[in-house]
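Annex B. Sample input.
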Amino acid sequence: MTDTSFNQLRIVPAPEPSRPDLHNTVLNVNCAAGEDVEWQWTETGKGRFVSGYRIVRRENPRPG
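Annex B, continued. Sample output.
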């Protein structure tokens, strides 16, 4: 049997920092089906940038 889990990964790019002179410490994250990313931000006097992340399970909406 072939493992197809690699095909189900998606790359989620980190949001841009608030200013071009700031740099994120995380560029992107690989998520499996049913996962989303919760970005962690660092706030400075110059602006904010992504400094970490947490992978969370995607919540399925309940049918109407």
